[in-house]
Amino acid sequence: MKKAAFGLLSLLLLTGCWDRLPIRELHLVNYAGVDLDEKSGDVLVNFVVSKLGKSGQGGGEMLSKMTELKGKSVSEAFGQGVYTDRGPFYGVDTGMFFISEKFASNDPVGQLDFLLHTRYTAINSPVIVIEGSLSKFFKDKSVKAHELIDYISNLGTNKIVNNVTMLHFLLSEEEPLEDIVLPMIKQEDSGVVLKGALLFQQGKSTGAKLNKKQVRMLMLLSGTSLGLQRLTTKLTAPIEGRQPHTGQVNGIDYAFSTKKVNAKISVRSEPSGLPKVSLKVRMIINIIELGRGVHPIKSDYVNKMEKELADHLKEEAVATIEKLQKANCDALGIGKQIRAYHPKIWKSMNWRKDYPRLSIQPVFDVQIINANE
């Protein structure tokens, strides 16, 4: 017994700081991006890799470096990463995947599906589209790795847009009704900004895009609760205590914070022709006027404001739905709803042919809960 105890104690003492060297040599891939070379047509893979520069108890200093690899295929380019930067790192084990618009238009799932069978793949990392040149974006020194990661994470956390994982993106090709949107970002003078979203049908880019307002509307139509939002609308009723320069209130900026959002898809069969679809959205919100001073909202004005805001949102919703139908992208999942709950109607339809011609009517019920008596 004493010999066994002594042996165990000796092993513990001999190990020392066994993990220090591997940690200092570890290469962490912050994010990876895929683009196509304009001249050769080869695949360009860009990585931002971090390495621990200085280590110490309770913290350390991370050093980041951009690496660009080229290959005839995505898998070939990714594979070269194992032998670079004086130590192995695995480009597929990344916090985020970025793809360029050009790559997105060229069978992206077919080129990336090897990730489903590759060791170390961070298959639940989000996929984001870069507007413009991905290589230029990665080489821009004003783009800080930690700030970019925080920005993308916050888009999903704050329900500005749904982040789609690589797993979801790759498997969407196998599901006939799995249409998705990928967020699009761009580097501008003010920093990285959300430009909108690129529409996909079964893993293939439609080439159509939603702008930022339409992305917000897509989230509302999906019944996703949002945080603080800003919109411009036209409310013509006067507000007590304010004398605007023009003599009337026209084109007022409002910010609203949603307390609760519910969305429901209703399908009604027609004796002849295609069914009619209603998208009913009920919103409970707080609203404030932006501008000079703070102006309380009087209760006798709330009803009119609720109606005009509902009409304004309906107008935006119609434009968003038209964009989705024109691209034949059912990002709202209407087809899934009909197939699951209206099998007789579903059997009578040729979905991809009929979806762009469906009558889809949005209806908004807005309730403001912060009115003053």
Query: Whole-number radius of gyration?
Result: 26 Å
Helix content: 25-40%
Q: How many β-strand stretches?
A: 13
Termini separation: 82 Å
Q: Count of helical segments? A: 13
Sum up the overall morphology in one term: globular
Structural class: alpha/beta
Name the average pLDDT.
79
Query: Which range does the strand content fall in?
Result: 25-35%
Biggest beta-sheet profile: 9 strands, mixed
- Say what oligomer this is: single chain
Give the H and E element order: HHEEEHEHHEHHEHEEEHEEEHHHHE
Low-pLDDT stretches are 8-26, 236-250
Describe this structure in words.
The protein is α/β, with parallel strands linked by helices. 31% of the residues lie in helices and 33% in strands. The protein has helices at residues 2-15, 20-25, 74-79, 101-104, 108-112, 134-139, 145-157, 166-171, 212-221, 299-326, 334-341, 343-347, 351-354; strands spanning 27-36, 43-56, 59-71, 97-100, 126-130, 164-165, 179-188, 191-201, 204-211, 228-233, 252-268, 276-289, 359-368. Strands 1, 2, 3, 4, 5, 6, 7, 8 and 9 form a nine-stranded mixed β-sheet that branches. The radius of gyration is 26 Å and the shape is globular. It starts with a helix and ends in a 5-residue tail after the last strand. The relative contact order is 0.09.
Helix and strand arrangement:
Blueprint: H1 2-15, H2 20-25, E1 27-36, E2 43-56, E3 59-71, H3 74-79, E4 97-100, H4 101-104, H5 108-112, E5 126-130, H6 134-139, H7 145-157, E6 164-165, H8 166-171, E7 179-188, E8 191-201, E9 204-211, H9 212-221, E10 228-233, E11 252-268, E12 276-289, H10 299-326, H11 334-341, H12 343-347, H13 351-354, E13 359-368
Parallel strand pairs: 1-4, 4-5, 5-7, 12-13
Antiparallel strand pairs: 1-2, 2-3, 5-6, 7-8, 8-9, 10-11, 11-12
